[in-house]
Fold this sequence. Notes:
Blueprint: H1 2-12, H2 25-40, E1 44-57, E2 72-81, E3 86-94, E4 98-106, E5 109-114, E6 121-122, H3 125-135, H4 141-147, E7 156-160, E8 163-170, H5 173-186, E9 200-212, E10 218-231, E11 234-247, H6 259-264, E12 266-267
Parallel strand pairs: 6-12
Antiparallel strand pairs: 1-2, 1-11, 2-3, 3-4, 4-5, 5-6, 7-8, 8-9, 9-10, 10-11
Amino acid sequence: MKKRIALIGLLAMTIVLAACSAEEAQELEEVFSKATEASENLDNFAMEVVSEQTFETDAEEGSSPLPTGVPITTTLDSEIQMDPMAFHQTIEMDMMGNTEMEQYYTEEGLFIKPSEQEGWLKAPEEMMEQLNALSSKQQTPVEQLKQVEDYIDEFTMEMEDSNYVLTFSSSGEDVQKMLEDTMSDMLPEGTFPEDMMESVTINSINYEYTIDKESYYPKHMVVDMNMTIEQDGEKVTIDQSMEGSYSKFNEVGEITVPEEVIQNAQEMPDLGQTP
C-alpha cells in the first residue's frame, strides 16, 4: 500500500492540465503551438519545484506507515540538459525532520549523495535502465505540453501583463483518464500495474500554467490536487499542492559529473540483491 501510494503521489506531481472557452480556442491553440515549439528548441534550463503533501487515513491510529495529518514539504532544485539528457539537482524533504540529497545524472551514470552519507554512491545498472526509460519522458516543458495536447479545448486562458495564464479546474472521469494516461506514458512497459488506477479516485484538481508572451517559455506552474486511494479496505486521502518555476533558459551550459565524484563513488547494491 505504501509503495503504491508513493508511486501515484510522485507521478501525480507531474500532471499538467488545462481548460478553454470556444471563443478563445484559436488564440489558445496558437499560444500552445508556439510554446511547444519554443520548448522543443531548449538546450537546457533550471527548474525549482516546491510541493506539500498531507495524508489522511481511516486506519486505526498508529497502524498506518504514513505520517497522517503532518505536511510533507519537498523542494527540488534542478538544472536540466536536454540532449543528451542530463541533470544536477538537490532534493530537500521536511518530514518531521529534514533530509537532503544531491544527484547527478549523465551518460556516466546516476550518482547520489544522501545527507547522511559522507561520500557519493553510484546507482546500479538496473536503476539506470529504469531512469533511461523515463528520461525521454522527463517532465520538461515540452513533455508537459504534449501530455495535454488532446485536452486543449478544455483550457481557459487570460492575459496578465507580459504573460499568458492557462488554467483548469475539474474532477471526475476526464481527470481520472488523464492521470492514467500520464502514468502509462511515463513508466516503462510492464511496470504500470493494470489495476493501479482502479484504487484511485481524483476528488479535485486545480491547475495554472504561466507562459511568457515574448519568448513563449514557461514561467510558473501551480497544481493543487486531492485524491483518495483505497486498497485492502483502507482509504488514504492525499491533499497535494505543487508550485514550480522555470529560469536560466539556454544558460545552464553542459552538465557533467565532477571527476572526483566518478572516481570515489561506491557502487550501490542491485535493487533485487539481498543483504
